[in-house]
Each structure stands twice: as C-alpha cells, then as structure tokens.
C-alpha cells in the first residue's frame, strides 16, 4: 500500500518557462564535454550550495570549465534562468492531482535539483508549498537528488518505508534511477509518449493506478 508519493518538480509538476536552461547554458559555455557530463558537474557545483546571486554561481561554473565570461555572456545566462522562472507554468492536471492525493491522506514530497537563486520562489509563485509534507531541494540538502542518500533522507522525513513510497518523475537518470537505487518504486512521466519504460504514465492523473 502506497502511503507517500514523491514528485519531481521541473518537467513533472511544472513546465520550464524556456527551452532547457541547462542545455542553453551548455551551448553558451562552448566546451568540448559531453552534455551529460556537463550537467553532472554543473549541478554538483551550482545546485548543492547557496550563492548570493546568479552572477556568483555562474562565475564559479565558468571557472570550473576554465572559461572566462565573454562580452554580455553573464547577462545572457542570467536572462535565460530568469525567463525560465518568469514563464514557467503548471501542467494542467497538477493541482487537481495534488488535491486528490491529499484527500486520500497520501503524504506528498517534492524533490528537485535546484539552484538557490531559483529555489522556493518558484514554489511560492504557484502556491505549491501547502500541498507537501516534505520539500527537498538539492541546494538546501547539499546533495543531488539522483543520489540514493537524497531519497533515503526524503523517506526519513516522510516517516515511511521505501516500499510504501512511489517516485514520479520525467527523467530516467535523475528521478527514476536515483529512486530505484534507494529501493523505491518509480514511475516515469512521458507526456510525449516517446520512451519505452515499464512503469510509464503520460498524465499525472494516472498516478492513482500505482497506489495499490
């Protein structure tokens, strides 16, 4: 019996306000590193600690990849991430699903690899905090969500066993594999219905099918 549902944030509950800010950042850095490797290094640096502002965070990231900011590059990077928050929107079924699960007395958690400069403000923008028993953001925890440790901490805060929890996310590498490594059953959200995966949904309303 599932007692808790753990939701990823971006791409699961909330749609990015712009084409992948990570991909755009990667393209702007112009480095000869595979995108997956870039994401791992960038998120580990930028999303596991707090920075005073975006300029400080991106300066550290550019240093990591041995890059010096070019003319107006910093302004462009900041603009990309500002636009993402400004234009982000809830998926149509998000609130309805969260409210239904709360009515069923299901505990809810939201987890995200998120930088401190785009943290809880985005939760507040949509009034989402009230729905969750636990909010786990990488920059507050000091670890990324693709780590089993991250999910184990989430379970501890929810006060449920791994077999009583269900993870719902749109990324196999960060959402699904991380949860499964912690022994948590995971469901992939694939709204475009283009990926092969055993436990897959194309709409959050289908989560209820996995609660028994």
What does this structure look like?
This protein has 212 residues and is of the alpha/beta class. It folds into 2 domains: 4-15 and 88-210, Rossmann fold (3-Layer(aba) Sandwich), CATH 3.40.50.1000; 21-87, no CATH class. 42% of the residues lie in helices and 15% in strands. The protein has helices spanning 21-29, 35-46, 54-64, 73-87, 94-103, 120-125, 138-141, 148-158, 172-181; strands at 4-8, 14-15, 89-90, 107-112, 134-137, 165-169, 185-189, 200-201. The strands form 2 sheets. Strands 5-4-1-6-7-8 form a 6-stranded parallel beta sheet, sandwiched between helices. It has a two-stranded antiparallel ribbon with strand order 2-3. The model has no long low-confidence stretch (mean pLDDT 94).
Task: Summarize the helices and strands and which ones pair or pack.
Blueprint: E1 4-8, E2 14-15, H1 21-29, H2 35-46, H3 54-64, H4 73-87, E3 89-90, H5 94-103, E4 107-112, H6 120-125, E5 134-137, H7 138-141, H8 148-158, E6 165-169, H9 172-181, E7 185-189, E8 200-201
Parallel strand pairs: 1-4, 1-6, 4-5, 6-7, 7-8
Antiparallel strand pairs: 2-3
| Helix share, percent | 40-55%
Structural class: alpha/beta
Measured between the Cα atoms of the first and last residue, the distance is 5 Å
| Number of distinct beta strands | 8
Q: What does the overall shape look like?
A: globular
**Fraction in beta strands:** 5-15%
Strand order of the largest sheet: 5-4-1-6-7-8
């Amino acid at each position: 019996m599932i007692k808790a549902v753990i939701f990823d944030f971006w791409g699961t509950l909330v749609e990015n306000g712009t084409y992948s800010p990570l991909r755009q950042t990667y393209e702007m850095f112009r480095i000869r590193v595979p995108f997956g490797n870039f994401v791992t290094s960038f998120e580990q640096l930028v999303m596991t600690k707090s920075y005073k502002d975006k300029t400080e965070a991106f300066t550290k990231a550019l240093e990591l990849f041995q890059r010096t900011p070019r003319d107006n590059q910093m302004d462009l990077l900041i603009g990309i991430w500002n636009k993402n928050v400004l234009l982000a929107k809830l998926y149509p079924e998000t609130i309805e699903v969260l409210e239904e699960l709360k009515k069923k007395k299901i505990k809810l958690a939201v987890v995200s690899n998120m930088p401190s400069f785009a943290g809880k403000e985005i939760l507040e923008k949509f009034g989402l905090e009230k729905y969750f028993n636990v909010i786990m953001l990488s920059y507050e925890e000091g670890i990324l969500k693709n780590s089993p440790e991250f999910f184990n901490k989430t379970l501890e805060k929810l006060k449920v066993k791994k077999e009583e929890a269900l993870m719902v996310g749109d990324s196999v590498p960060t959402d699904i594999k991380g949860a499964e490594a912690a022994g948590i059953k995971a469901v992939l959200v694939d709204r475009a219905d283009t990926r092969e995966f055993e436990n897959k949904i194309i709409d959050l309303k289908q989560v209820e099918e996995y609660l028994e």
